[in-house]
Write a structure and sequence with these properties.
With 230 residues, this protein is mostly helical. The protein is built from ten helices and no strands.
Length: 230
Amino acid sequence: MDMLRRLLVLRQVQIALACLAGSGIAASVIAWKMGVDVDSLKGMWTAVEGFLKQNPWALFLALVILPGLPIPTSVLLLTAGVVWKEHPIMACLLCLLALALNLSWTYWLAAVPARRMVEKILAATAIQIPDLPRGDHLKLILVMRLTPGIPLFFQNYLLGFLRAPFWLYLPISILCTGIIGCGVVLSGAGLADGKLKWAITGVSLIVLGGVLTHLIRGWLGKKKRLAGEV
């Protein structure tokens, strides 16, 4: 209970719950205005689930491409867990691979063509894009990944645009997002298949990811305070 109480007072958890509640209310109002009922929603989901099961490549491709757009990654991961509920471990591995590919293409898109375009625009001015100090690379990646409320696609593009070292960017990013991501996948698989162990494992990973995020942010804050004192 103490751990749950600590999690509920975390700002990122409160923001996530508020966003979830707001999204649910907005979706309910829109559905009500459109005359959508429970039966029609079940029918639509059954059709989508059937298509994705017959064409797993479509879901994998969606996991690679759509997180690079303003689309909630958690919804896609939850969908993957539900659709691939018969093989939850394989679902996690496929989602991690898709996440790695998404992190890669969004990074390089921002690091090469997007940055060159901005540099050409700024060439006629005195403004230059600053280079990151070597010692700030890890800190920047951690701050971006662990700050609540920043969309994943925006994090990827910004880190790519600033050219944080890819060899550092990719593993740190997968580690920061993969734990909670796998938790979401396993939670979806457990709820869809009715297997409590996968649901409990998924929730545990989400809680673990939240605790680790809190600890690392505390460490970064302490390091910043010590640097200020010096």
